[in-house]
Amino acid sequence: MKKEDTLIMKKRILSIMLCGIMACAALSACGKTNVAEPENKTESDAQNVTSEVSAEENDSTLKAEIAEQPAGDVSLQQTLSLKAKEAAREDAGEEIDSVFDDFDGDGVYEEFIFLGSEIDPEFETSIGSLWYVSEDKCEQLVESTEVKSFDDHVISQFDVEGVKFIGVNEAYTTALVTYLYTVKDGEVKEPFISHMGYFFKPDYVEDYCVSISAYDGTFEYEKGKEEEGMYTGHTWKNYYCYLDKEEAEFKAYVGTPITEGELIEALGFDLASEIRDAGFELGAMLKRDNGIINVDYSKTSDEGDSVFVEYHNVTYNVNTGEFLDYLGEGKTWQSSDFGGTYVE
Fold this sequence. Notes:
Helix content: 10-25%
Number of helices: 6
Structural class: alpha+beta
Order of helices and strands: HHHHEEEEEEEEEEEEEHHEEEE
Number of strands: 17
Strand content: 35-45%
Shape: elongated
Distance between the termini: 77 Å
Largest sheet: 9 strands, antiparallel
């Protein structure tokens, strides 16, 4: 037999043995005692292996190949999935989605897995729980809740400057709220912006956004009883964040108050005067380090014994020199209104 043929035969036998080892490990994890025997080798095959590789060399080779497996090792992923399913028990539902990866680049693979009901085709949601599993850990991150699916996936993936994050979007009637996770130094990590709002990548800035839902569009109170007033009017306002790569943590672009003169310098015209001329009262003016300027304004009106206040805002992008067309009515300051009031 040629040397090349011998090497090919050796690889085939090693692959067969490795498959047998991994199958035994998987079946053992499930608590089964009956393990199928590996394929029988021919006498000539065994002689070829014996003549080329010693038992010690064979064992060393197998260990090396096993160590190289995680990147594409379906058996490891199946083992991690099984661990989550066993911890969740039968009432957790089926595996709806999962992400198997080496999240922190340490050579060890982890899995985020969502167990729940089949995705409802009408509402595109699934009810279930999110789990994090590694070879030595298994923990429930999100208890049973309804999450939104996108393109038949309930787990979203984000690669932010080489740091890998996953998210699941908890579904409410009129809003989504994102649970966000990554892995750092072998431990699952939840950034501080997790579950604050809907996390996404906008197309008008280089950074990431959290759309925060609030009821601050209007305020109504009886004259003389302002402290008993009520806020209504659902709004969704974008706040911006950047990644501190060293900490694998998102940090907010905090708004810095600016003067009307600084606003004119940034926009090239007197926006504050235009807002007043339109019958509104000027509120806070905030500039963020990513080039976004937010200007709040409001209008107060009397309705009999009641006072009604409506709150609005402007979003201007210094980087593009344009207002954001949030309402789809053109890039004007009126159309950049997210409703409500921005905070620093």
